[in-house]
Amino acid sequence: MAGDHSLPIPTIAATINDFFDDLRLSPRSKKTYRFALEKFCVFLDTGFGLPATSTPVTELSEDHVIDFIAALMPDDIRSPEEVSQMRTAQTNLAAIRKFYSYLASYDLHPTLSTEKLRTRIAAMMPRFTPPPPDVRTSDLDQIVEFVRNMPRDTNADKELRRLKIQAMILFLYRTGVRVSELCAVRRRDIDLETGAAHVYRAKGGKSRTVHFDSETAHALVRYWSARGDAGRGIGALPVFSGRDRVGTPGAAISPRTVEHIVGELCTLAGIENPITPHSFRHGLATEMVRRRVRESTVQTILGHASPITTRIYVHKVALEVAEEYQDAFGEYQRPAGS
What we know:
Layout: H1 12-22, H2 27-48, H3 62-72, H4 80-105, H5 114-124, H6 137-148, H7 156-175, H8 179-184, E1 190-191, E2 196-199, E3 208-211, H9 214-227, H10 255-269, H11 277-290, H12 295-302, H13 307-311, H14 318-329
Antiparallel strand pairs: 1-2, 2-3
Helix pairs in contact: 1-2, 2-4, 3-5, 6-7, 6-10, 7-9, 7-11
């Protein structure tokens, strides 16, 4: 394959398929990268007359990436819509740069210069620090309080599901794990002695240790006990099952099911703002910053490859700004009748 020039040169589409087969990516990253590369292929076809299914991969150049990203970038970055457009451009660029690095690394495109591409991208991209994710911890706290107070159910399977939801929401909010990490964790990865969980081969292939509190630990034990975990081999059982049946743990829960449960909870708890499983990760980061946890510790817990990502959260949250402002100019009073 790579480096054997006696073979026919593969097409762009075939190489993209090899790219996804060869690289270990999380399900979320794979979905994001595939969508971005599909958009890039459409751009190549409509803009340059290079259909991915018949064009040799060696026809690709640095210019194609630059033109594609230029078409996605907003003229300015002032409004929420422009910020969203810039985020999309950055996400697409990350996928295509990964693909171009793959081409260079496997000698599939001998004349391609990733260094030249990096320099040209740096020259064209504006300075842009994404704003902190718009997650209100009050909404997350409301969901947590809702699951704490969900009434017991006389039906054993429905009660088991209630206990799972309670443990899962607490685990999301206290560990900050990504939804794919939550679905992959096994009982053997949970250390109830120290309140820690080991996340293996997370985003970027890196492993890390996350922590949880006593309330989460007790919620996990209640759920597992109700599920009927017993005997040898329980360490291989998923922490959270997809289908809850007493005495039958079943397969691990899927990201789609977790998303559905969180959406259902938002409706039941009366939350209007958009909340996803990933919101709990943002919420934990914001809460740790609020409680003056060191930036390096936040980075380690969340598994951020770069401190730049962590610094998105290292800001004065809106509540603190309002409190300091009102300390200076007096407590705000809402106008009567408004």
